[in-house]
Write a structure and sequence with these properties.
The structure holds 2 protein chains of 2 kinds. Chain A is of the alpha/beta class. Chain A is built from 10 helices and 8 strands. Chain B is mainly α. The chains are: A alpha/beta, B mainly alpha.
Chain lengths: 344, 441
């Protein structure tokens, strides 16, 4: 009977050890991590970020210990220079964020984890002393009252490849308003072309010459560095849907129906959580689409998103400069300029 | 045929007879079982970082097919923890022989005897396999369900009814243990004949009578008979592989069914897990969706219609070529032995195809069993995804070739003439080449 007793003790002891390992281990490991927030990244279909609101104080570091429960994700803070971090399934990565200005920040997923990737966002509310984040000025599309849900389609487009370099030759002939930044922001290339075409001073120029001049006007509003920055942002954030060349054929939308202007309104119950009802973005490389669009409209679209089309809102994530760079880069598609190859 | 009786060696006999070595192993596997359920329930949802997934579906499942069965027949059953809690009550103690404890001790219903339910259980594993094999929590619930079911059944029914009639792994190991190199038999039939008490039968948790054992399929190698035999008349033999397979052993129709289900399962598993068809994979995974119903339909059609149809056709042809007058039912049962080496070697080839590549996950999950970022033994980040090497490919071809040759030999032994064996050999050939195509092609 002694042996039987010993055997029973052993069975119970072994089982207790088996049960103790996870719980004791959890307790031991968590003791060292009192000030650490454990954040699980999951595709929105699987629950999204495990924590969607984090409270922080100015200059007090937030330690995050992160892992992914499904696919590769990433984390970054919108409108900040804090470096992003990749989060791999089953592995833990730690990072520390420190904020020197109070305000509301957006953290978001930086890896194309799925069709609802852009829904992976959360906020960090930073309180405390210091100069608060500057509120963004009202976007131009609001002050100009542009209906960004009905982008116009134009018929007058260049018949040949435009050249900003050639256009520069006509710079001295152009009226002052044409090179004014306000005109650039609020006017589409097609509208500006029509206004210039009607200018008597430019009668001697051919239609193509005027397109070249407009392309030059667009080019002088940006710099090669800004274009490069725009290209990088586009590749990282936009190409998965809009396609590398702006055709609207990115990997995330290939199975979606093609964009139809008739469907483009926010009354439809499209854009459900599953991605059903989403359409492909329109073809930005078709000049008829983009040349009728003003920079203010594009900026508005990026800030506010597509409302029901699946296009995310980037307002809380990109700085105004980043959006401006993106807009400048987008027009390259319409002009038919090949993107710089010098960026990998 | 040649046999090596291990009980002739005093040290081996004492290890086998003493309850402690086996008890300690079972106590460890029981604790491991509990630990696996906990890691499955509370650990990382990422399968490759969860002990439950890696230990059940990579380490144990591989060890069962590459080690326990080929070298020990039902040796896993002798240390399996699943019946342990139930037997504790049934026997009134952990180190106790059978039958002094608690339980209704009812006999298992006749209608449910045989391997039918085990085969059905294996089919279910196949149908839901893609989810079970990748989800730690589902794995944990399956394990929990199995141990609770075994426990409850042991309170109602006598002996190891769960193991005998329900456990799909019991069906799997029992079927292929016939080809294994270990057997428990009596040394001298005369001694048993003169012994009126039949203590061995009374003690056997599997309900076997050692004197009548012709096949190792239903002997769980628990050594209870050896422990109670007053005349030391039980032998534990090492024997040539496949000794049970031949014209002399009796077989039932359910063995053919079980053998065919196993063949269908290894084909489907190879197609789902190793094949290049992403659509099959996602269909197998999307349980409840239309593609899954199509997958399930095709699987069931292959397992219940195509393979049995081909097999029955081969058996019928074989009957037509011979002169003996037996029923189709009897012949289907008799030739089921052909399916044993064929299936066993196919399962081994299938296992080789992923085992080498995936075994590198074992150390990391020991280091961090719950995928919580621990590093207990310093191996947490050492997983590498192995490649199928040419050695592994060669081994798979060799295993399939051995399976074909072996099953052909069994077909010949069972039928007696080349003419009659030919249809069965053709059946084995079609199956082996299908496996070859799925694994290598």
């Amino acid at each position: 009977m002694k042996k039987e007793f010993l055997a029973r003790i052993l069975v119970i002891l072994f089982i207790l050890i088996a049960v103790a390992i996870p719980f004791a281990g959890q307790w031991l490991f968590s003791r060292n991590r009192i000030n650490t927030i454990e954040l699980h990244a999951r595709m929105p279909e699987n629950g999204g970020w495990s924590i969607e609101r984090i409270d922080a104080v100015v200059d007090e570091p937030i330690h995050l210990r992160m892992t992914s429960d499904d696919v590769v994700h990433g984390i970054a803070i919108g409108k900040s220079d804090l470096p992003g971090v990749d989060i791999y399934p089953g592995e833990f990565v730690e990072t520390t964020f420190v904020f020197d200005q109070p305000g509301q920040y957006t953290f978001y997923c930086t890896r194309w984890c799925g069709p609802n990737h852009w829904r992976m966002r959360g906020t960090i509310d930073v309180s405390g002393e210091g100069r608060p984040l500057q509120p963004e000025p009202q976007p131009l599309f609001v002050t100009l009252d542009i209906d960004i849900d009905s982008p116009p389609i134009v018929e007058t487009v260049p018949t040949e490849q435009v050249s900003a370099e050639r256009g520069a030759n006509f710079a001295s002939l152009l009226p002052t308003y044409a090179i004014d930044r306000t005109t650039y922001l609020s006017t589409s290339p097609a509208v500006l072309w029509m206004r210039l075409r009607a200018e008597s001073a430019l009668f001697s120029l051919s239609d193509q010459d005027i397109w070249d001049a407009v392309a030059w006007i667009w080019q002088r509003q940006t710099t090669p560095e800004n274009l490069e920055n725009g290209q990088r942002l586009y590749a990282e954030n936009c190409a998965a849907c809009h396609g590398e060349t702006g055709k609207g054929d990115g990997v995330m939308v290939r199975n979606n129906p093609v964009w139809d202007p008739g469907n483009h309104n926010m009354d439809k119950s499209s854009g459900s959580f599953t991605g059903e009802g989403f359409v492909r973005p329109r073809d930005s490389s078709d000049p008829k689409n983009l040349l009728g669009t003003s920079p203010a409209l594009l900026e508005g679209k990026i800030i506010r998103g597509g409302m029901g089309t699946g296009m995310p809102y980037w307002g809380p994530i990109f700085t105004s400069q980043q959006i401006e760079n993106l807009v400048s880069y987008l027009f390259n598609f319409a002009w038919g300029f090949t993107p710089n190859e010098n960026l990998d | 045929m040649v046999r090596l009786d291990l009980t002739r060696y005093p040290w081996a006999l004492s290890i086998l007879r003493n309850r402690w070595p086996q008890f300690l192993l079972r106590a460890v596997t029981l604790a491991g079982f509990v630990f696996t359920i906990l890691t499955g329930l509370f650990g990382s949802v990422v399968g490759s970082h969860n002990f439950a997934i890696i230990f059940v579906w990579i380490a144990w499942w591989t060890a069962l097919k590459l080690f326990f069965i080929p070298f020990g027949g039902r040796s896993w059953c002798s240390i399996c923890p699943i019946p342990m809690p139930g037997e504790w009550l049934q026997n009134g103690g952990i180190l106790m022989p059978r039958g002094k404890g608690f339980g209704l001790n009812k006999r298992w219903p006749k209608a449910l005897r045989g391997s039918w339910l085990q085969a059905g259980g294996f089919l279910l594993i196949g149908l839901f396999g893609a989810l079970t094999l990748t989800s730690a929590s589902v794995t944990a619930f399956v394990l929990l369900f199995i141990i609770v079911l075994a426990f409850v059944l042991s309170l109602v029914f006598e002996r190891r009814s769960f193991c005998n009639y329900l456990c799909p792994i019991g069906g799997f190991t029992g079927l292929y243990a016939q080809a294994g190199p270990v057997e428990v038999r009596v040394k001298d039939a005369e001694v048993c004949a003169s012994h009126a008490e039949k203590t061995c039968y009374t003690a056997c948790p599997w309900g076997q009578f050692p004197l009548a054992l012709k096949s190792s399929a239903n002997c769980g190698l628990c050594m209870e008979c050896l422990r109670v035999c007053p005349s030391d008349n039980i032998a534990v033999n090492l024997r040539p592989w496949g000794s049970d397979l031949g014209p002399k052993t009796k077989h039932r129709l359910d063995e053919a069914f079980l053998g065919l289900i196993m063949l269908a399962s290894v084909l489907v598993d190879s197609a789902v897990f190793l094949g290049p068809w992403g659509q099959i994979k996602s269909a197998a995974y999307a349980i409840g969706s239309t593609p899954w119903f199509i997958f399930a339909g095709v699987f069931l059609f292959a397992a219940l219609v195509i393979l049995p149809g081909l097999y029955a056709g081969a058996v019928k042809l074989s009957m037509l070529m011979g002169s003996s007058r037996t029923t189709l039912r009897k012949s289907l049962a008799k030739y089921s032995q052909v399916l044993v080496p064929l299936g066993l070697m196919a399962w081994i080839a299938f296992t080789i195809s992923f085992a080498f590549a995936k075994f590198s996950y074992v150390l990391p999950v020991i280091s961090d069993p719950l995928g919580w970022g621990w590093n207990l033994i310093g191996y947490s980040n050492s997983a590498w995804v192995g490649q199928s090497t040419s050695i592994s490919l060669l081994l798979q071809v060799v295993m399939l070739a051995v399976g074909l040759a072996w099953s052909s030999r069994v077909a010949l032994r069972v039928s007696g003439t080349h003419r009659q064996a030919l249809p069965l050999v053709t059946f084995s050939g079609i199956f082996s080449f299908s496996m070859l195509w799925l694994l290598i092609g």
